Batch of 2 targets.
Target 1
Amino acid sequence: MKTVLVIESSISGKAGKSTQLIEQFVAKLPSSVQLDRIDLAAEPLPHLEMNEIAAWMTPEADRSLEQAALARHSDDLIDRFKQADAIILGVPMYNFGVPSQLKALFDRIARAGITFKYTEQGPVGLLADKPVVIFATRGGIYQGTGADSQTPFLQQFFNFIGLSEQHFIYAEGLNMGEDAARATLDKAEQRIAALSEELAA
């Protein structure tokens, strides 16, 4: 594992629990690993609009300067996904869903003919599989319940583009008192230690 793409989506920045768990994880990786960081709070992506999609659909040689600049958002992100040997995401739960800034990134990663294709048997992901580590942090307890819309969405999205090796690390009940928060963070830290060693092997 040479390059790890780190995606932070907490609006709390470095104070966000998902971001702090990411930092604990990367601290356990070999020093030779290079980190490619995307901080969606510090540099949020705009929501996807039709003119950007039109830029994608225009042949590269025919794009205007404005279209070339718009297409570059998606092209650069997809290239970073391709170049990474593993991807780490911090995903806090906001109103039962993923942060909107993370959805804006996903909207630029899912590109027909580039990261997936349609076939007679259904869509097929085109990215080479690699580990995806997801730090899911929540104020309440949702894992395994119908209120957890994040997990099936993330599973489906990454499977859709070809990334099926997914590792979820949950930290739940963070707003349910100090003892509950400490217990779930301790459990997450144990999982971090085991998984970082596994992926570095």
Target 2
Amino acid sequence: MSLALSLHLLAAVIWVGGMFFAWVILRPVAGDLLEPPQRLTLWYHVFKRFFPWVWASMAVLLTTGLWMIFGVFGGMGGAAAHVHLMLATGLSMMAIFLHIWFAPFPRLGRAVASEDWPMGGKQLAQIRRLIGINLIIGMITVLVASGGRYL
């Protein structure tokens, strides 16, 4: 249980912490300092480096979460309400990320490659909104995970 929980927490910190840094710190600085061509190119390459970590985090979160649900709690029937909520929010976050990965992210890459800055700006705006939503869901999930069993 301790190995699964430790890996689970590490994966959550990487994913949610990365979104927090990108959305709250990097986004406003890049917006203030960089013109659209440099800003869009920066974001595309930031995502290109961060998104493999999100994939790894999702794999670890799913594996360790299901390991704890079925190996420790004896299935969903033995899991407390906060575990059900964490699973639901985690799956929601994964669905949002999959949409980002398969739709606006490749379009952002094509826009940057072809120097279509208006299209790139549109794709980045969509990614920004979705990451903002995922960040809120992720922070709620952290609150549920850390305090749920005490409710």
